[in-house]
Amino acid sequence: MFRMRTKKSMPVCQDARRLVGMSMLLIAVLMPMQSLAQVVGNNDPVRLAPGDVIQVSVPGRPDFSTIVTLDASGKVSVPQVGDVALSGLTTSEAEFVLRQRLRLFDPSIDKIEIILQSSKESGTTFFIIGAVARPGEYTFAYVPSYWDLLRAAGGPSENANLRQVRHIREVEGRTQVSQLDLSSLLEGGDVPDLELLPGDTLVLPALLDGISAVPTTRGVKVFGAVNVPTVVDISEPTPMLDVLMLAGAPAGNSDLEEIWWLHPVGDVSQTQIVDMREYLRWGDPLGNPMVYPGDTVRVEYFEASWFRRTLPLILGTLVSIGTLYLLWDRIENDRVY
């Protein structure tokens, strides 16, 4: 009986030990795989996306080294190469693509380093449109200066009006528009006190077609409905309202909705009608354009319409007729009684 119980119990013990051994072996196998999965997950390569800012470094070729931002289509503009699509690539893959493109210009280039400076996912977004090389949306890991934003957009165009840049900001659902003079950024002067905030938009207007910022002759002839018709002595582009103030300011009977502005272009003069009331009411910069030396400005006199001019006469006539009729009616009534 003892031997029979031993023979029956031995397989059970062997099965139990075998089960424990297999469990330990399975745990030993799965633990390294789990650790490997964690490592792979933590090092999942980041892929470039529109709005990312990258630094491109090319050893020995500083002319190719630059900081660029992927535009809305996922492309970057590299000097001497042009637009290159990098969206969806890792930094290593982007390095390979750029290296192949740059080697077309310099076969000795064998190394390129790309560093992701800021990602749209964690950065702050700004917008710049108008007369710049690459208008669009730009993301920074920090709050940029005006110069940083202009540089990221490729700089202002040749016909950019830096003296009348519009700064647009959304505050509690309402749009605030300010006018800035950024011309000092290119001259090493003072910068505006208004700081950029995430989501801000800069609009760089362009100068009128054919108008050059290079002074031709000194002075602006100002006449019409101004207090002191004169030649305002200026040597650089000046806002029209400043020119009018130097001419004694517009007269009380001036029509600010119709200011004639003549600008000579070669042998031909271009004429434009300026509505300054739009500038005074809403801050529209088109109502206060830059006037150049050699220009002519005439402020029209306000003329009321025919109806407004004749209405007092018509009312006076009706009152006189009514008075005479009442007087006649009273006299007739006195005769009857």
Keywords:
337 residues, alpha+beta, wza like fold, Outer membrane lipoprotein wza fold like, five-stranded mixed beta sheet, 17 strands
Protein model, in words:
There is one protein chain. This protein has 337 residues and is of the alpha+beta class. Among the domains are: 66 residues, wza like domain (wza like fold), CATH 3.30.1950; 81 residues, Outer membrane lipoprotein wza fold like, CATH 3.10.560.10; 82 residues, Roll (Outer membrane lipoprotein wza fold like), CATH 3.10.560. The strands form five sheets. The chain has a five-stranded mixed sheet with strand order 7-6-10-8-9, covered by helices on one side. The protein is elongated and about 140 Å long. The N terminus is likely disordered.
SSE inventory with pairings:
Blueprint: H1 2-42, E1 53-57, E2 66-69, E3 75-78, E4 82-85, H2 91-102, E5 113-118, E6 124-130, E7 136-140, H3 146-152, E8 165-171, E9 174-180, E10 201-204, E11 220-224, E12 230-232, E13 238-239, H4 240-246, E14 254-265, E15 268-274, H5 276-282, E16 290-291, E17 296-301, H6 306-336
Parallel strand pairs: 6-10, 11-17
Antiparallel strand pairs: 1-2, 1-5, 3-4, 6-7, 8-9, 8-10, 11-12, 13-16, 14-15, 14-17
Write a brief caption for the model:
With 337 residues, the chain is α+β, with helices and mostly antiparallel strands. The protein has helices at 2-42, 91-102, 146-152, 240-246, 276-282, 306-336, and strands spanning 53-57, 66-69, 75-78, 82-85, 113-118, 124-130, 136-140, 165-171, 174-180, 201-204, 220-224, 230-232, 238-239, 254-265, 268-274, 290-291, 296-301.
